[in-house]
Amino acid sequence: MLRACAGCRLRVSEAGAGLAAVMLRQVLALLSPPCFVPCSGGRGGNSMFYAVRKGRQVGVFRSWEDCKKQVDKYQYASFKKFKSEDDAWDFVNSRATVSSYNSSGISDVAEERQSNNSNQDTSWSYHSSYKRPCEQSSENQSARKHVKYNEMPSASSQKENEFSYMGEHVVVYTDGCCSSNGRYKARAGTGVYWGPNHPLNSSDRLPGRQTNQRAEIHAACKAIEQAKSQNIKKLAIYTDSKFTINGITNWVENWKTNGWKTSTKKDVINREDFERLAELSEGMDIHWMHVPGHSGFTGNEAADRLAREGAGKTQC
C-alpha cells in the first residue's frame, strides 16, 4: 500500500514538472519581445499547434486562421505547424536559421523539417498557390530535399547602379515565366534583377522550347554570365524555383553518373539547360536562396515583372 502511494506521488511529481516546463516557456516568451498573445481559437478538435516565430505577433496558436492573421503579407514571416505544443514553443523561442545551398550542393545549416500539410490552408508557407503553372519535375517528389525560404537582405538602403550584398556575396534575383505553359502558343521570358534601375537588369524572351522551368534555369544562367562579366566570384541567387535549386545542388551529379537518366531511367528533359548551368557555375561561389514567389518580396516581384516583359518580346 505504501509503495502504491509512493508511486502515485512520483507520477504526480513528474506531471507537475512537465507542466512547469511548459509554463516556463510561456513565461519566457511573454518576457521577450515581441510578447506572446494567446490564441483565440480555443482547443476544439484541432490537434495542431501553429508557431509564429516572426510575424505581427509571436506565439503559439491553435488555429490556422489565427496564425494567418500574424503572417499573411508580413515580410520575412517565420512560422510552422507542429503536433506537439512543446515543439511549437521550442520553434518560437529558438533563433531563426537561414537555409541556403552553395555551389557544391551542401546545406550551410541543418535542414528544418517541413510539416506534412493536411490541406492548402494549413501549409507552413503559402507560396505554392501563387506560383505560375510549370511543367512537372522528372524526379520523384519524395526524393526532393526540402528548400525553405529565407530572410532576405534589405534593399531599402541600396542606391541606383549599386549592388546589394549578403555578407561577401552579391545579391541577384532571377525569375522565369511562361504563359500558356505546355501549350502550342506558350511564350516564356526571363528576368534578372540586381537592384533599382541597375544597368545589369535584364528582360529577355526565352530561346527555344517555351516552358516555365527552362525560363527559370536560363534566368539563373544569365545572372551568372553577368556576374562573371563584372568579375564577381561570390553570388547569392534568389529564385522561387525549387526545381532549379534542387537540380543544380542535388540532382546534376547523379544525372551525370547515370548517363543523364532520372531515377526512373528516363531521359532528363532539361539536360542541355542544366549542363549549361553547371558549366557556368564552375569556379563560382554561389549560394542558392529560395524565396516564395508572388508574396510581396521586392526583388522577386521585380524579377517577375522583367520576366513577363521578356515573354512579350519577339523570340530570337
Describe the structure.
Helix 1 (2-31) packs parallel to helix 3 (85-93) and helix 4 (212-229) packs parallel to helix 6. The termini are far apart. This protein has helices at 2-31, 64-71, 85-93, 212-229, 242-257, 271-281, 298-311; strands at residues 49-54, 59-61, 78-82, 165-166, 169-179, 187-193, 202-205, 234-239, 285-290. Strands 4, 5, 6, 7, 8 and 9 form a six-stranded mixed sheet that branches. The chain has a three-stranded antiparallel sheet with strand order 2-1-3, with helices on both faces. The radius of gyration is 23 Å and the shape is globular. By secondary structure, the protein is of the alpha+beta class. The protein contains seven helices and nine strands; from the N terminus they run H-E-E-H-E-H-E-E-E-E-H-E-H-H-E-H. Strand 4 and strand 5 (169-179) form a beta hairpin. Mean pLDDT is 74; it is low at 32-45, 95-99 and 104-152. 34% of the residues lie in helices and 16% in strands.
Helix content: 25-40%
Uncertain spans, ≥5 residues at pLDDT below 50?
Answer: 32-45, 95-99, 104-152
Q: Structural class, judged by helices and strands?
A: alpha+beta
Rg, alpha carbons: 23 Å
Shape: globular
The helix tally amounts to 7
Average pLDDT reading: 74
Measured by DSSP, the beta-strand proportion falls in 15-25%
What order do the SSEs take from the amino end to the carboxyl end, as H and E?
HEEHEHEEEEHEHHEH
Count of β-strands:
9
- Sheet bearing the most strands, described? 6 strands, mixed
User: How far is the N terminus from the C terminus?
Assistant: 90 Å
